[in-house]
TrEMBL record:
Origin organism lineage: Bacteria, Pseudomonadati, Pseudomonadota, Alphaproteobacteria, Hyphomicrobiales
Organism: Chelatococcus composti
Enzyme Commission identifier(s): 1.14.11.33
Cofactor binding note: Binds 1 Fe(2+) ion per subunit.
Stated name of the protein: Alkylated DNA repair protein (DNA oxidative demethylase)
Record-level GO cellular component terms: cytoplasm
Gene3D superfamilies cross-referenced by the UniProt entry: Alpha-ketoglutarate-dependent dioxygenase AlkB-like
PANTHER family: ALKYLATED DNA REPAIR PROTEIN ALKB-RELATED, NUCLEIC ACID DIOXYGENASE ALKBH1
Gene Ontology molecular function: any one: oxidative RNA demethylase activity
Amino acid sequence: ALELRPGVMHWPGYLDRPAQEALVTALREVVREAPFYTPCMPRTGKPFSVRMTNCGSLGWVSDKAGYRYQRTHPETGRPWPPMPAVLVETWQALSGYPHPPEACLVNFYGPGTRMGLHQDRDEEDFDAPVLSLSLGDTALFRIGGTSRRDATVSLRLSSGDALLFGGPARLAFHGIDRIMPGTSTLLREPGRINLTLRRVTRP
Ligand code: MD3
Ligand code: FE
């Protein structure tokens, strides 16, 4: 693994092609039980361009009332489907954290989709790292420091890459500037899926 900045570890191509295909198959089952929905911004209700779903005991949601973790899908009202075992195993292999992940947010980025620079601070446990897995088209990812004014660096995230954010990087600003269409043949539809595995509560 490469340490990009303090607390940011990158494993390019961590998942080989067969492992990526198996993960996509498992995710199609997740999405059948918990369809992608379009979250919207607190207060304004402006829709996100990224579509989302979750698996695991808790899922991250955003609507007019705010950002939060909850046990059920905001549209079906059903509990989130279980996390595929391969995700729990990847967390055990890479996170260095001695408790299992509780939430896996599944983000779908169609061509032209962005995610503005933000911090992830809706979790109670900032001691646990966040693990990201990328599938499908390459994304231009940007990460800065813990102040919005800090300098940022850009990184291409390709299908199969794993990234871990912990310690001093756990509250770093980060975002997705663009998706590069046609850079992967993994998915049937153009775009990118990102999985973020997290611990939400204190163990
Ligand atoms: C750095 N997702 O869901 S993953 C998010 O590609 C999110 O879907 C992006 O930002 C995506 O909140 C980026 C990389 C990532 C995830 C969590 C982080 C970077 C992070 C938490 C702290 C610092
Ligand atoms: Fe984030």
